Amino acid sequence: MKKKITIKDILVLQIVIAIYTLSTVMAKQASGQPLFSVGFFGFYGAELLILGIYALLWQQMIKKFELSVAYTNRAMALLWSLIWAVVIFKDNITVKNVIGVALVIAGTIIVNGGRKEEDLTSEN
């Protein structure tokens, strides 16, 4: 049985997921560089480094969380990707983007909230 999940645990999981989404930022940056240039290899190397760090952190997360909860929270990568698109690449957000991310957040909250009720009923 996994340890009871706290808000701090969810925040740490979200940080790990945000780190994962940074690999796509590096991939996009690499795609803007001339093929086989120093910049291309630099961004590609940064992407691989981020993915390696993420892999190690993700292993720690799935030790702490039920696998279904951890993977449900990975859907929040959509929110992080949207944030990076606006902050780093100055992309525009559409109403459809906001609605889609809101649905993902709602689903993630339902899954995380449901775990607390399940934990309480199993303790009694």
UniProtKB/TrEMBL annotation:
Keywords (alphabetical) are: Membrane, Transmembrane, Transmembrane helix
List where the protein spans the membrane.
37-57, 69-89, 95-114
* UniProt entry tagged with the keyword Protein transport: no
Membrane is among the record's keywords: yes
Top-level taxon: Bacteria
**InterPro entries linked to this entry:** EmrE-like
Name of this protein: Transporter
Originating organism: Eisenbergiella tayi
